[in-house]
Amino acid sequence: MNRINRLSPRLANQIAAGEVVERPASVLKELLENSLDAGARRVDVEVEQGGKKLLRVRDDGGGIHKDDLALALSRHATSKISRPEDLAAIDSLGFRGEALASIGSVSRLELSSRAAETDSETGWTVRAEGQQMETSLEPCQHGVGATVEVRDLFFNTPARKKFLKTERTEFGRIDEVLKRLALSRFDVQFNLRHNQRTVHELRPALSELDQRRRIGLVCGPAFLENSVEVDQRAAGLRLWGWISLPAFSRSQADLQYFYVNGRIVRDKIVSHAIRQAYQDVLYQGRHPAYVLFLELDPAAVDVNVHPTKHEVRFRDSRLVHDFLFRSLHRELADIKPEVPGSNQLSDQVPPETSREASERGDSEPWAQTAAQAALPLRDAAPIREAGGEYRFPTQASPASPAVTPEQYAKLFGGGEEAPPLGYALAQLHGVYILAQNRDGLIIVDMHAAHERITYERMKQALEEESLRRQNLLVPLSLAVSEAEADCAEAHRESLLALGLELERVAAESVVVRQVPALLKDGDIEQLVRDVLSDLLEFGSSDRLENRRNELLSTMACHGSVRANRRLGIDEMNALLRDMEATERSGQCNHGRPTWVWQSMDELDKLFLRGR
Ligand code: ADP
Ligand code: MG
Predict the structure, then answer these.
(1) Which residues contact 19 (CB under 8 A, 6 or more apart)?
(2) Is ligand 1 within 6 A of the CB of residue 39?
(3) pTM value?
(4) Quick one: which of 290, 359, 474, 591 could link to 283 by a disulfide (CB 3.0–4.6 Å)?
(5) 156 C-alpha to center of ligand 2: Å?
(6) How many CB atoms lie within 10 A of CB 611?
(7) What separation in Å is there between the alpha carbon of 336 and the centre of ligand 1?
C-alpha cells in the first residue's frame, strides 16, 4: 500500500497549471488581465510562433515593488484581496494569485518591473524556469510598469506540448483573446505583433465614433452596419452595447461577446435570455451577434466559480434573466430604423479596417439585406385597435392607377408625410409586392409580411385579453389520431384561451367550434392539425403557456394571405401601411426578411447610370 506524502509546491503549481494554462492563448489572457488590473493605459503584446516560442506582454501600469517580485511568482500570492470579505465583492479581474506561479512552472518566465512609487531609475527582473525558481533579483532597464516574458511553453511537460495545434491555430486563439479584452476596455491601447508583424494597433477609443471603429475592427464592418445600440437600466442593473439586427444572423455563435462588470463570461442564463429575446425574430438554428456589457453591484455576482473565471454565478439569476430578456426584447421590437445616415454611424467610420476584420465581414446571404436597415420607417401610422380584425379593403379595383396624383404629391412633394414603404405599383408572380417610395424600389414578401402582422396582433390581443373568438357557422368536424384527440381534450382550456375551441366527439374525431376572429378567413383545418401536431411534439409535460407564442405563430401562418393570391392595389397599400405600424415587421415569424429596398442610387449603379 502506498503511503501519503505532501506534494512539493512545484508539483502543486504544475497541477494548478493544468487548469489555468491550457495553451498560449490562456497565458495571454492571464497576463493581459494582470496588466489591466495594474491600471495600464497601453499594452504591447509580442508573439512568436503562435505563442509557442514567445509571448511577451509589456504594460505601463503601476508595476510591482522590487521586494514583491519574487512573491509575485509564488503560488497563492496576490495584491488584490487580503480578507475573506473581499471575495464577496471582487472588482479586479484576477484574485486567485496563482497565474504567474502556474505559468512559471511550465515555461521559462521572466518578470521585469519598475513600480510607480519608487525613485529608483532602474527596474528589476526575476526568473522562473519550470521547476527552478531563481529568486535573485537583477537590475534591468524598465520604465514604470511591468513586462512578462514567457518562452518555450510546456518545454518541461511534453505531453501537454503535444496537444498544441499549428502555429496558425494557436495564434488565432491568441488574437481572439486580445480582441475580447480589447472590447472590454475601450480606454486602453492594445497592440499585437506576431512574428515581427503588426496585427493590431487599437488606439484608445474614447468617443463613440472611435468605439464603433474598434467594434468594426474586432467584429467586422458587417456587424457594425447591421447592429443597433442598446442602453437600458433597471433595478440597479445596466445593459449597454450593440446587438445585431435579426436579418444579420449567423450560422455559428461566434460573434457573441458578453461582459459582466468588464469580465468576459459565458453563462447559460445570459445566453438563454438573449436567445429568448431573439426567438420571435430569428430563423431557426441561426445565432444573433452581440457585444453587450452588463454592469451590476460586484456583490451581486460571484466570480469565484471556475479557475479560468469564465463563469459567474448571479446571486439573483432570475432578476438578471428577466432584465436581459426584457431589455433586448424591447430593443428588437423597436427596430424601425430611421433616415439613412442618421443612426448609421458606420457611414462615418473611415475605411480603416484590419485584414482580419474584413475577412470576418460576413458574407452570409442575409447580411445582404442590409439595405433594409437603412430605410426610413419613422412615422408609423397609428396601430389598429388591438384585437381588431385584419382585413384588406374589399372594394379594391385592380384597375385603379398604381400611384394616384395625391400619393405622388405625398411622395415627391417634399412634405413630411411620405410613407416609408411608399405606394404599391404591382404584384409580381403572386408573391411579391412592388412599391415605390421616395428613394427607390421596395419589394415585399406578401405572405411573410402578413404573417408577421397577424402574429403581432394576436400576441397583443392576447396580452390585453381581448382575443376575440368567432363562432363557426358550421362547426368543422375533423378526423384525427387518438393521440391528437387526447391532446385536444387535455389542453381544451388553454386552447380556448388562445381562441380555439375544440371538442372531442369520438375516439378519433374532434369538432372545431370557435376560432380566433383574426384567423377566421384562414385555412382552419390545416391550422388545427398543425396546432395539434405542435402540441404533441412539445409533449404534455411542457405547459402550453410556455409555447404560447409558438402556437400563435403557427396559427398566424395559416391565417395569413397565401402566396398566389391576387391583391388589388388598395389591398397592397393597406398591407404596406400595416407593416409600417407593426412591431418587428422587418421579419416574418421565422426570421426571414419581409421586405428589401433598392435605392435609386443602387439601381443607377446597376445600369451604370450617371457615371
Ligand atoms: P492574481 O492576478 O490573481 O493576483 P497572478 O499570479 O496573476 O495573480 O499575479 C500575482 C500578483 O503579481 C498580482 O496580484 C499583482 O500584484 C502582481 N502582478 C502580476 N502582473 C502584474 C503587472 N503586469 N503589473 C503589476 N502587477 C502585476
Ligand atoms: Mg492574474
Answers:
(1) 102, 307, 308
(2) no
(3) 0.65
(4) 591
(5) 22
(6) 6
(7) 47
